[in-house]
Amino acid sequence: MTVYHITLGDGRTTEKLVAAAKYGYCHSQVFSDNFPARPFNGRTERQIVLLSFDHPLSSQEATAEAAKQGLERPYCEDALYFGIKYPEVQLEGPVAFLHDPWLGNHGCRDAICLWNNEGRRELGLEGFDDLWAPNYRLAFVRPAGPSSE
């Protein structure tokens, strides 16, 4: 299982994090008012693990399976920092971060997803309450502690 190491809480705003990732497209609602980058009391190390499934499943089913594996749900900030540090990963297929969903303008609950479109990296939003197709890798967090390495 590949573990991706990121560090949150460097003081950048959501807008600066999105700009640093150099996406070809970013959903217009991904900005600080909707997805604030929290300070986390300074730099916070995180270990991201991507889970794949061979069938469509709900966010709840994916989260339950992740919990069985000792993994936790990500923060929206995990997606922002991940996109900066590991830009090539989303070119291999979409990565969804099942953070606490954002209630969008049309009453839908959305989560941040990293996609590619004809080789162009994109940051978008997808329905948290929809089913996740098997080509999606779902990002979760390995809790910090002595057994996390």
How would you characterize the overall build of this protein?
By secondary structure, the chain is an alpha+beta fold. It is built from three helices and eight strands; from the N terminus they run βαββααβββββ.
Q: What is the CATH fold-level name?
A: Mannose-Binding Protein A, Chain A
The rounded distance between the terminal residues' Cα atoms is 11 Å
Low-pLDDT sequence parts: none
Shape: globular
Give me the number of helical elements. 3
Element string (H = helix, E = strand)? EHEEHHEEEEE
Q: What is the typical, i.e. mean, pLDDT?
A: 95
Topology, please?
Layout (H helix, E strand, L loop, with lengths): L2 E6 L5 H8 L3 E2 L17 E9 L6 H10 L7 H10 L9 E3 L4 E2 L5 E9 L2 E8 L9 E6 L7
Parallel strand pairs: 2-7, 4-8
Antiparallel strand pairs: 1-3, 3-8, 4-6, 5-6, 6-7
Helix pairs in contact: 1-3
